[in-house]
Amino acid sequence: FYKGEHESARELLQKVIERDPENSEARILLGDACRELGDTAEGHKHHYQVAKVFGQELPRNRLSLGKDLP
């Protein structure tokens, strides 16, 4: 993922979330991958779910939410 393989990361992380929908770290990374691929709305959705739906205020996610802004 950090080597620019965002599409592969997105596919893998979607499978992780299918198995474990509350996996916050996978959701944050999936949101990051989506954003890097130009799908900022989808990326923001995953970051928002970690923060609001799961109620987890993680510093890593706050940084990702900030990057979602235009």
What does this structure look like?
With 70 residues, the chain is mainly α. The chain contains four helices and no strands. It has helices spanning 6-19, 24-36, 40-53, 59-68. Helix 1 (6-19) packs antiparallel against helix 2 and helix 2 runs parallel beside helix 4 (59-68). The termini are far apart. The mean pLDDT is 83.
Topology (elements, then pairings):
Elements: H1 6-19, H2 24-36, H3 40-53, H4 59-68
Helix pairs in contact: 1-2, 2-3, 2-4, 3-4
Q: Which keywords apply here?
A:
globular; mainly alpha; 4 helices
Helical amount among residues, as a percent range? over 70%
Element order: H for helix, E for strand: HHHH
What is Rg? Answer: 11 Å
Mean pLDDT: 83
Enumerate the spans where pLDDT stays under 50 for 5 or more consecutive residues. none
Specify the overall morphology.
globular
Give the assembly state of these chains. single chain
Question: Structural class given helices, strands, pairing?
Answer: mainly alpha
Q: First CA to last CA: what distance?
A: 22 Å
**What's the β-strand tally?**
0
User: Number of helix segments?
Assistant: 4
Strand content: under 5%
Main sheet: strands, sense, barrel? none
